[in-house]
Amino acid sequence: LPIKTRKYKNLESAKTYGADVTLRYRFNKEWTAGLGYSYLDTDAELYDSDDDVLKSVIIDGMAHHKGNCYVTWNHTLKNENTWGAGIYGRASIKRYYHLNGNGKGYQLWRLTGNYSFSTKHGKQRPLTFNLEAGVDNIFNYVDKTDHVLHLGTTNPGTTVYAAFTIRFNHGKKLFNKRTSNVVRNCI
């Protein structure tokens, strides 16, 4: 199988036009939903050496329409620990390419859950623990385009994941005020 590579090409008069819209609605203290939409259009001219003319083209890798949505639930218990869950989706129509055909449109869905709790020392909570688990790409979409380049999405398929995070809310200061100002001014 020959190795396929992509080359950058100079374009004349490249222009992009677009708009993004994001909506978020909180139903109550526990439920939130959101939608996002992006429109993008491009116009450029590419020199065609065969015909010795500039041709109007769409810029490589561009998709006209993309969107996302989510619904989340978060519940705070009496001891201030929290439970949460969410479902997230994102979609794109085909992506345009000059060579090797266009990338396919897709939609990907993710389901997550989390539990967060803190240690208590008097009124302070010096440590917060967060456990999160989920499934990414629930419907196992994989771009199986014949060519080597994955032009729609590079998602490998369904992925199950888990994460455990510890957050230190209070700590000792590493520098005194004079030293920290010097360090800040040097950065």
Description:
- The chain has one helix and eight strands.
- The chain has one helix at residues 177-186, and strands at residues 12-26, 31-48, 53-57, 65-76, 82-92, 106-118, 127-136, 159-168.
- Strands 1, 2, 3, 4, 5, 6, 7 and 8 form an eight-stranded antiparallel beta sheet that branches.
- It is elongated and about 80 Å long.
Look at the structure and give the mean pLDDT.
81
| Shape verdict | elongated
Give the oligomer, counting copies of the same chain as homo and different chains as hetero. single chain
User: How does the helix and strand content classify structurally?
Assistant: mainly beta
Number of helices: 1
Largest sheet: 8 strands, antiparallel
Cα separation of the termini: 49 Å
- In terms of DSSP E residues, the strand content is over 45%
- Which series of helices and strands comes N to C? EEEEEEEEH
Q: Over all CA atoms, what is the radius of gyration?
A: 24 Å
The percent of residues in helical segments reads under 10%
Q: Give the low-pLDDT segments.
A: 178-187
Total number of β-strand segments?
8
List keywords for this structure.
mainly beta, 1 helix, single chain, disordered C terminus
Lay out the secondary structure.
Elements: E1 12-26, E2 31-48, E3 53-57, E4 65-76, E5 82-92, E6 106-118, E7 127-136, E8 159-168, H1 177-186
Antiparallel strand pairs: 1-2, 2-3, 2-4, 4-5, 5-6, 6-7, 7-8
Task: Give a short synopsis of this structure.
With 187 residues, the protein is mainly beta. It contains 1 helix and 8 strands, in the order ββββββββα.
